[in-house]
Design goal:
Shape: elongated
Low-confidence stretches: 1-31, 362-369, 388-399
Number of strands: 25
Largest sheet: 6 strands, mixed
Membrane topology: Single-pass type I membrane protein
Order of helices and strands: HEEEEEEEEEEEEEEEEEEEEEEEEEHHH
CATH topology of the domain at 36-130: Immunoglobulin-like
Subcellular location: Membrane
CATH class of the domain at 36-130: Mainly Beta
Number of helices: 4
Protein name: Cell adhesion molecule 2b
Main location: membrane
Structural class: alpha+beta
Keywords: Disulfide bond, Immunoglobulin domain, Membrane, Repeat, Signal, Transmembrane, Transmembrane helix
Strand content: 35-45%
Length: 399
């Protein structure tokens, strides 16, 4: 009896051991059959990156983060690398999350999360660091330029990763530039140039360099406003179309140039203004207070700057108001045009009437021509009668 009880206890213990070993193997298989789960991270230089490693099942097996140099950053909740920028966010059997602050380009690379089973399971996560481009600068322009100069504007930005894109605008219209990219360590220096010959139309024009990059929500921009010096150009405007005696009359000398051409000098017929009491000069304007016949002549304004001298002329003819009827010029012109049209119309009617009458008479005469060629009187009568019949058939009428 005692022997039977002893055998039953041995069998019970053996079964319990078998079940215990089987359970342990099942747990081990659950840990060893999976890999850590990670995600790639992209961050702007100077920003913060969170690196997370997870497992679905863990039986108290530790997780570890290592940097691209295979230095251990955290083993579980234990910090292994002395770097004040790296800190623990969350540590448990299923998750290990760390934070890297003030990320630099040197932090970029492949990070490793390890699950310490037998054997060790690892998963990689790539940290991409975007290099922010520096503010662009435009070089190559020294104010002022002179009309006809060839100018090369160069826009430069450094520190971008990947390389930034540069666009040029002339006021609001895009223009093409020549691009050059150079690597500086892990970042890039980008240059773009535009070359052109300036003229007076470029004075005051804004050339804008725009830097675009994936790290920027809005492009960086810088602008250079051109200053172009050019020789003056003058023209004269007048206040009256038909100046008459006794009227107030003004001439203005419009000058275009850079620097502004001044002073403006007025003259008449190659000499000084003859009557300074009635002829008043104020800046660019010449005013004649009361016109008379003696004011007839050629008026000239002249101005200059560092690049040259220009002039413009106006021929003044003062009309006698008594010699001009009220609205005379307009009525005379209209009357002359009407007279010409009426005369031409009458001539056409007369010529057309004579032409039609002449052709109708000739046609009927030739119908009776056979009577004139007959050898005797009897034949002539017969031919005339026959032709007359045919003439009635062939006669045409003009309406």
């Amino acid at each position: 009896m005692i022997v039977q009880q002893h055998l039953i206890f041995i069998l019970y213990s053996l079964c319990a051991s078998v079940f215990k070993v089987a359970g342990t193997k099942s747990k081990a298989k659950g840990s060893q059959g999976q890999f850590p789960i990670t995600q790639n991270v992209t961050v702007v230089e100077g920003g913060t990156a969170n690196m997370t490693c997870r497992v679905d099942y863990n039986d108290n097996t530790s997780l570890q983060w290592s940097n691209p140099a295979q230095q251990t950053l955290f083993f579980g909740d234990k910090k292994a690398l002395r770097d004040h920028r790296i800190e623990l966010v969350r540590a448990s059997w299923q998750e290990l999350t760390i934070r890297i602050s003030d990320v630099s380009l040197s932090d970029e690379g492949q990070y490793t999360c390890s699950l310490f089973t037998m054997p060790v399971k690892t998963t990689k996560a790539f940290l991409t660091v975007l290099g922010v481009p520096g503010r662009p600068e435009i070089t190559g322009f020294t104010k002022p330029a002179t009309e006809g100069d060839v100018i090369t504007l160069t826009c430069t930005t450094s520190g971008s990763k990947p390389a930034a894109n540069i666009r040029w605008f002339r006021n609001d219209k895009e223009v093409q530039g020549t691009k050059e990219v150079n690597a500086t360590g892990k970042s890039f220096t980008v240059r773009s140039s535009v070359q052109f010959q300036v003229d007076k139309r470029d004075d005051g024009v804004a050339y804008t360099c725009s830097v675009e990059h994936v790290s920027l929500s809005n492009p960086y921009m810088t602008t250079e406003v051109l200053e172009v010096h050019y020789a003056p150009h003058l023209e004269i405007t007048h206040s009256l179309i038909i100046p008459q005696e006794g009227q107030y009359f003004k001439l203005e000398c419009i000058s275009i140039g850079n620097p502004i051409p001044e002073p403006v000098l007025w003259s008449k017929d190659g000499g000084e203004l003859p009557d300074t009491e009635r002829m008043i000069v104020e800046g660019r304007e010449l005013t004649i207070t009361t016109l008379n016949k003696t004011d007839n002549g050629t008026y000239r304004c002249e101005a200059s700057n560092d690049l040259g001298t220009s002039s413009a002329e106006y021929i003044l003819f003062v009309y006698d108001p008594n010699a001009l009827g009220q609205h005379g010029p307009d009525h005379a012109l209209i009357g002359g045009v009407v007279a010409v049209v009426v005369f031409i119309t009458l001539c056409l009617i007369i010529v057309l009437g004579r032409y039609l009458a002449r052709h109708k008479g000739t046609y009927l005469t030739h119908e009776a021509k056979g009577a004139e060629d007959a050898p005797d009187a009897d034949t002539a009568i017969i031919n005339a009668e026959g032709n007359h019949v045919h003439a009635e058939e062939k006669k045409e009428y003009f309406i």
